[in-house]
Amino acid sequence: MFLLGGYLPTIKGYLSNNFILDEHRSLLVALQSMNTPRAEFATLYFKGNIYVLGGEGLDEGEESKTQ
Fold it and tell me: pTM here?
């Protein structure tokens, strides 16, 4: 199982962190982060690679959006 990116309302920010569940040790193990923090995206795991498509996020230099 993978845990990828997302939006954290408490800091009003998008995340680029990625983790995989190590079932034997019951731990989340950090993976390489996404280049662009984002949420609400589609994910494909294919031949050992994770592909993240679409979603919403902020480009570098763009300010956080407040609602």
Answer: 0.72
